[in-house]
Amino acid sequence: MIAYVNGILESIEEGNAVVDVNGFGINVAISGSTYDRMPGIGEVVKLYTYTNVKEDAFNLFGFLSKDELNLFKMLITVNGIGPKGGLSILSVMSPDDLRFAIMAGDSASISKAPGIGKKTAERITLELRDKIKVSEDDMLGTASVSVADLDGDGANVARDEAVAALVALGYNQGDALKAVRKVLSANPDAAEDTEALLKLALKEMF
């Protein structure tokens, strides 16, 4: 319904901002990370919004970027994740961190969000992994690709084995996946060779 609100930040508190749009004060629910990045009181702000309509309520959820809004919309398609749950997750994870966690099956990181249990976090990784489109512009500075673009049988096995090996060595799953994907983007020949892929990914980790 409402694509965005653009006006003067009238007031802000954890979880909510009031934006003055031509004399109308509009309440917009915001995540903790959005709260931390908001401008000062009296300054202009533009929030991309999701409209949630219920029988007894009309609520706007706002984000500073379309990317964050799109991830929020994706999260609330998962059974058991409402708008408040989506905000909770995006309060503790950046869009890139969330993408990496979903693709790496790192439900433990997602379950750190208040109100998000282990089973719900696992459901998020299972249901959204194939839907996540990884933008190399955002992550690696190159062209956009989707999970399927890199998931040939050999490449998929080598990638997963390389990520698992890095995690076994003590690296964070998200960082491991990022390093492996970067190597695959720059060295397609390593796509079906786990050992070569692992060696190159290790270099990226340092």
Supply the key terms.
single chain, 206 residues, alpha+beta, OB fold (Dihydrolipoamide Acetyltransferase, E2P), DNA polymerase, domain 1, 3 domains, five-stranded mixed barrel, 11 helices, 5 strands, 49% helix
Question: What do these coordinates show?
Answer:
This protein is α+β, with helices and mostly antiparallel strands. It has 3 domains: 4-64, Nucleic acid-binding proteins (OB fold (Dihydrolipoamide Acetyltransferase, E2P), Beta Barrel); 66-132, DNA polymerase, domain 1; 133-206. It is built from 11 helices and 5 strands; from the N terminus they run βββαββαααααααααα. The protein has a 5-stranded mixed barrel with strand order 1-2-3-5-4. Helix 2 crosses helix 3, helix 9 crosses helix 11 and helix 10 (173-186) packs across helix 11 (194-205). The longest helix has 16 residues, at 153-168.
Task: Provide a short characterization of the protein structure.
By secondary structure, the protein is an alpha+beta fold. Helices cover 49% and strands 20% of the residues.
Task: Please give the structural blueprint.
Elements: E1 4-13, E2 16-21, E3 24-30, H1 32-37, E4 44-54, E5 57-63, H2 66-75, H3 83-92, H4 95-104, H5 107-110, H6 118-128, H7 136-139, H8 147-150, H9 153-168, H10 173-186, H11 194-205
Parallel strand pairs: 3-5
Antiparallel strand pairs: 1-2, 1-4, 2-3, 4-5
